[in-house]
Design brief:
- By secondary structure, the chain is of the alpha+beta class.
- It has three domains: 67 residues, no CATH class; 90 residues, no CATH class; 160 residues, no CATH class.
- The protein has 14 helices and six strands.
- Strands 1-5-4-3-2-6 form a six-stranded antiparallel β-sheet, with no helix packed on it.
- Helix 8 runs antiparallel to helix 9.
- The relative contact order is 0.06.
């Protein structure tokens, strides 16, 4: 049963942006959401008044079970915040306000939660990673949008890696990678696997600073190294259609090469970002990285050397059997660099 309460409101701000409820009966109610409880939603609807009189609103309690969806009024402040690199504090405040609407169709709560989880992970602190894991779990289980659920799942796996649960994350990411044909989902799964391999490699090197002298450690070091590099470079297979993912992968490879003491290979990946993916957010840090390197290193161009080697190689005769084109020349050039070093 709906309970009706009359409320006199002196401000007419509620009229500037209104929410629209769609009920199971097919009825649409226009007004402003005033609050939400476990079973009911408080909704304010304007009542007819004489010209010039102060607005009058009725506060209606509507059972949440009767609501099919809500078309939320545009919130420019939230949209602007999600479009920019907002601070953790700003996102936490927005999440506190939005989280009650997580399961309501068409709410932006899941986007806010995923953005907050991502920002917490970027900070690198262990406590923040644990908080991010909790938020991603909440969004994954409660969001109304399958797309938001998948992004929360990806965030959860990254948070698991960051909180020392890489083994579990790797198994789940491998299941996702083997079960999907969606390039975007596959790229994200492989990126999670790359991050896990990179984290394992870093720990292995920290625990074994003289790994080159340990015959038991060398094979694992080499496995993790090549696995991380190959997975980070995977988006390059998509020939420019995944520019952001390819640039992110190259930047991840920069980190692996640096970890392995291969500054020349790291330089080449950074150069590729600044040349091929100038419109991505990784271009600026890649440029800064190149600038930070000594001139004796930046004067070396492995890509140029590879091109010269290829031009000097014997040309294929017309009678030779035609071979299929290499589907991934960029990745092949990086693999050539790897074999030179390892």
């Amino acid at each position: 049963m709906k309970h009706l309460f009359i409320t006199f409101v002196l401000s007419a701000s509620i009229l500037s942006a209104q929410d629209v409820l769609t009920l199971r009966s097919g009825e649409k109610r226009t007004g402003k959401i005033a609050g939400i409880e476990a079973a009911v939603l408080k909704f304010q609807v304007p009542l007819p008044v004489a010209p010039g009189a102060s607005p009058v609103f009725a506060s209606v309690s509507i059972p949440r079970a009767d609501i099919v969806s809500i078309d939320f009024a545009p919130d420019p402040a939230v949209e602007q915040m999600l479009g920019l690199r907002a601070s953790v504090g700003e996102l936490q405040a927005a999440w506190a306000a939005a989280s009650p609407w997580l399961g309501i169709p068409k709410s932006h709560a899941a986007r806010v939660g995923n953005a907050l989880g991502k920002a917490l992970l970027a900070g690198g602190a262990s406590a923040d990673a644990k908080m991010a894991l909790e938020i991603f779990q909440q969004v994954e289980s409660g969001a109304w949008s399958p797309e938001d659920k998948m992004k929360a799942k990806e965030g959860r796996l990254r948070a698991m890696v960051a909180t020392g649960r890489a083994g579990e994350a790797v198994r789940e990411a491998e299941e996702i990678a083997s079960a999907t044909e969606d390039p975007a989902v596959l790229i994200e799964a492989k990126h999670i696997l790359a991050e896990a391999a990179g984290a394992s490699l870093k720990k292995l090197l920290e625990d074994n600073p003289r790994w080159e002298e340990d015959l038991n450690v060398i094979p694992e070091r080499n496995r993790l190294y090549h696995e991380a590099v190959d997975l980070f470079l995977y988006p390059a297979l998509f020939e420019g259609s995944q520019a952001d993912a390819a640039a992110r992968g190259l930047w991840g490879a920069v980190g692996i090469y640096q970890l392995a003491g291969e500054s020349a290979n790291a330089l080449e990946c950074a150069r590729d970002i600044t040349i091929l993916y100038t419109g991505t957010k990784y271009a600026a840090p890649a440029k800064d990285f190149i600038t930070s390197l000594p001139a004796t290193l930046t004067s070396v161009d492995l890509e140029k050397e590879a091109r010269e080697e290829n031009s000097a190689a014997p040309q294929q005769s017309p009678d030779d059997e035609e071979k299929p084109a290499d589907p991934d020349p960029k990745k092949k050039s990086h693999e050539t660099k790897n074999t030179k070093k390892s």
